[in-house]
Amino acid sequence: MPDKKIPPSIVHMLERNIGKRLRVIVDPAYGFEGTLIAVTQEPAGIWISEVEAVVLRATIAQPIPQVASKEERGDIFLNLHSVQRMEVLPNDR
């Protein structure tokens, strides 16, 4: 199966957020929070530092997933083809 190219506009949008904290969702119940430090085109991915793995939970009363727990990790690389959603977090942490 050929690897699809990521449009340059996505890479430029991500590059504008270098240095900001992100929440990257890779599964409906799992993701990572950390500081975006680099964006690569080949392979299409992002490097995140000061990473915390997060477990997300949703309930009938609270249908929007909320962070249920966090676990410290090191720096990680995430392939953009495995990312479902990204959120830029506020700097007030």
What features would you describe in this structure?
- This protein has 93 residues and is mainly beta.
- It is built from 1 helix and 6 strands; from the N terminus they run H-E-E-E-E-E-E.
- Strands 1, 2, 3, 4, 5 and 6 form a 6-stranded antiparallel beta sheet that branches.
- The N and C termini lie far apart (42 Å).
- The mean pLDDT is 89.
How much of the sequence lies in strands comes to over 45%
The helix-strand sequence is HEEEEEE
Q: How many helical elements?
A: 1
Helix share, percent: under 10%
Gyration radius, in Å: 14 Å
Distance between the termini: 42 Å
Overall pLDDT confidence: 89
Number of strands: 6
Major sheet characteristics: 6 strands, antiparallel
Shape: globular
Which runs of at least 5 residues are low in confidence (pLDDT < 50)? none
Report the structural category.
Answer: mainly beta
In short:
The protein is mainly beta and 93 residues long. It has one helix at 8-15, and strands at 21-27, 30-41, 44-57, 66-72, 76-79, 85-88. The model has no long low-confidence stretch (mean pLDDT 89).
Walk me through the topology.
Layout: H1 8-15, E1 21-27, E2 30-41, E3 44-57, E4 66-72, E5 76-79, E6 85-88
Provide keyphrases for this structure.
9% helix; mainly beta; single chain; six-stranded antiparallel sheet; 93 residues; 1 helix
